[in-house]
Specification:
There is one protein chain. The protein has about 180 residues and is α/β, with parallel strands linked by helices. The protein has one domain: HAD superfamily/HAD-like (Rossmann fold, 3-Layer(aba) Sandwich), CATH 3.40.50. Helix content is about 30%, strand content about 20%. It contains five helices and eight strands. Helix 1 packs parallel to helix 5. It is globular. About 35% of the residues are buried.
């Protein structure tokens, strides 16, 4: 990592923070088709707010459905294109592995955060991650960023280790903006 840090960033988990997942049996699942891919209503305004506050906006998202053969690579690319077109994003990092691959990019490991930090010379000590799963929070803690858990009431996801807990993306962004002042 470079010692000359520049910008702070906000790392956003995709599904459950920006994109509305499908809820099945108390758990959230990433959309696998474009027809099921839509934003939470506060996503656009929230990312504009963080951009205007001087943060880089970066999505870090586990997408194991690629490796499992449940999501076509072309569909994931189109989803990423929609995110870039509609939101104030600087980059998107997707881990396309499953747990047993033991890669360094799949959250709770912080590989995607470290890759983005290197690429953009990000000051991790002044950066944040917003996620709806304990693995998002763990990745952020390992990387040394502040953590916000958006409680979507998923089964077995509690956010106990997070620095802050919120009910929505908008609430999380307001908390970050208030801490920056």
């Amino acid at each position: 990592m470079s010692k000359n840090h520049d910008a702070p960033a906000i790392f956003f988990d995709r599904d459950g923070v920006i994109i509305v997942p499908k809820r099945l049996e108390g758990k959230g699942f990433a959309p696998r088709e474009l027809k099921d891919f839509y934003f939470y209503e506060d996503a656009m305004s929230s990312l504009i707010k963080t951009r205007n506050a001087g943060f880089l906006n970066i999505v870090v998202s586990n997408q194991p459905d690629i490796a499992a053969g449940l999501l076509q690579f072309g569909v994931l690319n189109e989803m990423n294109n929609i995110l870039f077109r509609e939101l104030a994003l600087d980059d998107i990092f997707n881990c396309q592995h499953i747990s047993k691959d033991k890669c360094n990019c799949r959250k709770p490991k912080p590989g995607m955060i470290y890759t983005a930090a290197e690429k953009f010379n990000i000051d991790l000590s002044n950066s944040w991650i917003i996620g709806d799963r304990d693995s998002d929070i763990e990745a952020g803690l390992i990387a040394g960023v502040r953590t916000i858990f958006v409680d979507r009431r998923w089964e077995s996801e509690y956010g106990f280790e997070a620095d802050f807990r919120c009910e929505s993306l908008c609430e999380a962004v307001d908390l970050i903006i208030d801490h920056k002042v």
